[in-house]
Amino acid sequence: MPQLYVGTSGWAYPSWKPDFYPEKLAQKKFLNFYASKLNAVEVNYTFRQLVKETTVQNWIKETPPHFLFTIKAHQVLTHIKRLKGAEDFLARFLGTLEALERAKRLGPILFQLPPNFKADQSVLAEFLKLVPRGVRAAFEFRNPSWYDEATWQTLRERNIALCVAESEERDTPHVVTADFAYYRYRKPSYTPEERKAMVGRIQEHLAAGRDVFAYFKHEETPEGVLYARDVLEGCARLGD
Q1: pTM to 2 decimals?
Q2: Domain containing residue 231
Q3: Which residue of 29, 48, 67, 102 is surrounded by the most CB atoms within 10 Å?
Q4: Residues 220-232, mean pLDDT to the nearest whole number
Q5: Over the range 80-93, which residues count as b (16 or more CB within 10 Å of their CB) and which as e?
């Protein structure tokens, strides 16, 4: 059965009290509470530092068996090496995620390319050869030069998802390139009608047999996490 995973890009926000977190909840209990309402999270701080084994074990301990952690790829891969000569660091980065993978708690890895990184199919194709077949991965392209059939074909050959990112700056085309879908909803607000449309699109993916990962913006205000809960509950109601 295809699964839907919905969350935000982070959870450690005291400003989500009292709309999401209870007023007196200690910050060390945030992840446990978050995981009782949502079933996935996108971890962004791995963009700047490698996660420690003790941290990963704490994540696993604080969340239920069905909860998944999507990991943002380190900037060394995407912004410094820009996908070239990255084999050694990629292996090191993936090594830090082995405990999550063993526990079956690892969601997709998100590779977010910088806006000034223009399309280069050969560089992308060579890098994708380094990504193990068993690892789910998604690519967020922030330069529009990538938005064409050549990119979609490069991704499809390796079953890599196109990250459909919605923001005030740009909207990624809604193109399917893998056996799962990946959404990043980054606008500050979404109307009830827009959220209803999200649910409809998600249901289409699920009906086609694709897992769906959807993450909302994680700013200091609680809107994103409330939208995430609303969408997850809306899809659950339709599935009943």
Answers
A1: 0.96
A2: 4-239
A3: 67
A4: 94
A5: ebbbeebeeebeeb
